[in-house]
Structures
1.
Amino acid sequence: MSKGTAATQVKAFLLTYWLKLYRLNFFVALLISIVLFMAAGNLGLKALQQTALHQGRYKPTSHLELFRFFMRAELIRFRVAVTAPLPLTDAESPLMTYHISIKEGDYSKLTANLPKSGKERYYNAYMRVGGGEKVQKIKLRFRGDNNFHWFYPQKSLRIKTEKDEIHNLQRSFNLINAPEDKFIVDIVTYEAARKLGIIAPDFYPARVFLNGTYMGVYLYLSQADESLIRKHKRMPGSIYSGDLAPTNKTTGVSLLWFKQRFWIKKGARNAEQKKNREDIVHLIKAVQEFDDLEFYEFARTLINKEAFYNFFAIDTLTGSPHHDYGHNHKIYFDPYLGKFEPIEWDIRAWSTPNWKENFGNPLLNRFVLNPILEFERDQVLFKVLNSDAFSVEARQSRVDYHNQLFYEDLRRDIYKDDAMVKPEVSYKHVSTPYTMQQHEKMIRRVKVAAKSRTHKVLRILKSAKGSYLIKPQGRHAQVIFQLQGNSPIYVDLKSGFAVDSKAKIYRDLNFNGRLEAIEKNTLFDSGKEILYPGRLKQKGTRIKGASKQMSGDYYIKEAPLYYSYIVTGAVSAPAEIAGTNAITGAKL
């Protein structure tokens, strides 16, 4: 809520209140005024308490703005609380419901010294799922790196079951207090990832009751461990998690993709393989040390390219910044196929940058800098963009479906909040409550973002520019092409030339326009060729002010690339040479 909106609402309320009081009996009006001002004073006191709490923890640049922020937040929180209906029963709600009980003393220990106390150990608790009568023993702690997971009343939970009482085929799972739009974007994204054959966790909205109190709508998230691999019918193998490695002191870039030791092994084929790290050592070495041909062979033989191309496509179409140099990577090595495969994890947002990749990472960059691999990646991207899994229409439809599914339970959630970074308040995430009207605006916003981003990506894929120069040399001609843009071009060299049956086409390897001995081995009969545009490393960060730790110290931009051919035989100047965008199929 903006300052103007909040001020307008307060003025309107006071005017309406004054006009009504003017007509009431004096003592009745006085009593009502006292009650209202006590309520306002209570909200002000809560705002002061939040201000004091955040002053010590977040060191805001403006204490006055901090108080204003929390006063507006308390007004919204009060409005949400007094207008929220009673919770639905388990039978009435379409969501899975988790009833959790824990001793008050143990819960106090979890909250005693956050965040450390919330994650340093598990405490015994009990869980009942849905309307069932079975109560099972569990262990519980808080989870999450950001403060919105554990600093506010609605806390994200990590749950472990007993060995003989697994839940959803897993012993460990999470119930997450997620930022507002994550309720939609990650649900739809994980769903699409599974449709595209990517390993992805179970992820769906659920209700949580803690010691009998309705804590609202959470997101169920399964763990990326051996049980997840089994659910996707893969062989048990190595699972690595790459998250928040230290930075290189010289470059400021995260060391995650430079040092294998910062990848935590979360799963193995068997007990003997738990400490074996040969696979991740080879992956990091390939990314950092292999030359172009070596990496191409590595990608062809040891990378599940179909899975990674679909994974990259989702990142591109969502504009996700979250699979970067430093965190949120999960990779599985399939011992049966002998190939690395991505695990979809933590998209976080649908954004609309004007460029193809929001944030890159060293593995993705190796694909982007190889014209053949990048071409293959874009072919899959174009396919996914038009697929039933992740087209604009598919995404918008699934947004509506899932929103309708949890809408009534969210309406009854008095703890629902978003997480924002507001520099004058804090450079860390601060919880802010929201109304259902604001939620509906968010739904419209993410649907617009899906459409806008898809159109931008399509425009990038349509970008393919070619020009050529012809230098006739009697019965020979040199043809020089310049390629720019994102996408390769199919060209038919013979289409524009009047050539006799003896005509031949060679690649002019040294661009000198003369057919030399080594170039006679480059003869090709069809005259049809695919020409790739260039890519260039640019020092710095694409996004102004972006952290090198996560975005790296260079980005990749489009650059012109040149090709030269020699055409022998009866040659006349062509009217045009036929060209086709190799991704979209459009004639050029």
2.
Amino acid sequence: MLSLAFALVLQGPSLTRDPYGVPIIQAATEAQAYELQGYAAAQDRLWQMENSRRLARGRMAEAFGARYLAADREIVRMGYSDDEIATQLDSLSDPAKAAVAAYAKGVNRYIGEARDSGGLPKGYAENGLTPAPWTPIDTAAIFIQLARRFGQGGAGELRNLALVKYLQTQPGAKAQAMDVLDDLAWQNDPRSPTTISPSDDPVRTRPVFPSPSRDITESHLKRLPNVGLLELMPAIKLAERESSTLLAESVAAPFKVGSYAVVVSGKRSSTGWPMLLSAPQMGHTTPSVVHEVSIHSPDLTVAGMDVPGVPGVIIGATPNFACAMTSGVADTDDILFYETKKPGTYRFGNKDLPVLVKPISVAVKGAAAELVQRERTAEGPIILKSAAGAIFASRMAYWGRELAAMDVLIEFPKQKTPDQIEAAMAKNPMSFNVFYATKSDIGYFYTGDVPLRPLNFDPRFPVPASPEVVSLGYVPRTQMPRVRNPKSGLLANWNNKPVAWWPNLDTPVWGRIFRNQVLLDALAKPKLGLADVELAAWTIARRNETFSAFRRYLPGIEGLEGGPRELQPLLGAYDGWDLAGHVGPALYAAWLNGLRHELFASTTGTFLTEANFRTIIQPSVILNALEGKTAANYLGKRSTEEVSRAALARAIATLSKTSANPEDWSFMPGTITVPGQAPIPYGNRGTYIQLIELGPQPRGRSVASPGIAESGAHALDQSSLARAWVFKKMTLGLK
């Protein structure tokens, strides 16, 4: 390392590219390295970065017109002013401040060169724009939105309140609304697949989570302010940041939550060396929402995935360890409600406090600026002021501290031992599953600030704001799920439940059927090689996650009135593989949705739309209903065979509306669109996939389809790799 450091100092900083255009940075200092990272990112993605900073700062309408106002309003209401972002920047460690400043310097160097040479991306000329200088505020705003989108969970309290109000309008559910609520919004199902097995769990003193009785739930509901369904719907969209998420997808900013990771210990590995697979699922766009870089300086060597606009490597490998992260989906966000006694105030304890109001002007291209009223309580943004006078506000556990995760991002790659790795990541306020592998150890820990909740309220609904509620603090770090060197030698996660005792709280995320089981099944061999881990990623893109749970209920075709005879071999041959062009997967999916209708529609209704119905009635609930393990009786007097056959008849009738010929019902998997090329099939995969082996010299392969750049030779050159499910070599070290 000393000889490499001396050589880097002598030769000065350099930026080269591998055969796929991945930047390889050599620098004498970290500052030089991050400056070159900013320069390389701007070379590759300047127009994407322009859109990302505008989206993150609520300035899209300024450049593109009124159709972007909804997202800008949402950002302004739920986000921070530039001054507040600057305050967070001031709280960063000196290394993180230096990294952000150096990155901005590199971006601006490229902007200047491109402007002088006439080489700016065509998006600027097409929209009559000139790039403003890149600032640390831009980077911080992008990072804050990134941290929120992938590192938070919860805020489902208003959604649950709307669910109760809706159920009370349904004749079949009104008398048993609380039973139906418990079936659809369960607190904890210990049967759900977990990352940590009970025998490996080191946490002996566990946090105490609310486990509300029916009396607590009913008492809580009586205390809630009177608010109508029509008032709740826009507030739910705001709490879930619906507008900015939809816009993020359209401008190739990270927008989709869902990732998988696999870590194999040396004892479980066929080579004797640990392996780590990381596949963040952040959406598929052109250009990709992520980027790749390889950085080398005397004090920093790291390669892997970065996000345009942000310094550092989010997942990747160093000479000492490899890391992976998936969204933790912990319940970090709450909705509080306040009484109001006087106009412009809210009641907190025995005081009437003023609503914090700040009018913010949002510029609109081709139209007058719009004045958006940003309103807050001391706990967070106001998302609903009901007609009856109540105020609902969002309380985020990480409020004002998202950039603390930037400190972690910059310091994390410098760690060496498991203790150092875990201590560094423990400072992260956002909810993530973090995995690592060194040459001798593997480990996992659940990060983030998770609020402790009052035990005398139901966490599924908004709670009354009071000093007692907001002062409860967070789950202690020592009580957060974690494990090192599990007995199985394997860690696998697909945003699943961390440990059996961890509850859902306000959002029923984890049930007895969960996709991680498919990943675990694909990794069942006693010894695993690189090809086995790679094959697991290929497998889960094609394997149906519900089939093993429902196959015993799948009916035969015999005696089914109106059932085409040719369906019997098609259905009977289906074995859970969702293969393109086959009828079996489409018929099975239609049957499962038929079960949903047969079991629930007469009781719950369809929640206004088919999309809502599919989202709310999860497969775990369907299975519970078939087994008679629900609080409400959805089978009625019918047998499971009768319901199953009725569901199949419904499925055939539905599919027959598309074509009378069953061969036309062929299953089409999700695809990834590539401009000018055929779509890439089987889109259920990582936006970026990397596979690292921690041997004497770490080796890595990765793919970041469609390519590193937003234009030119490296814009689409990895799409052929993705289509064939193959990988390219990563540059992890320098010779």
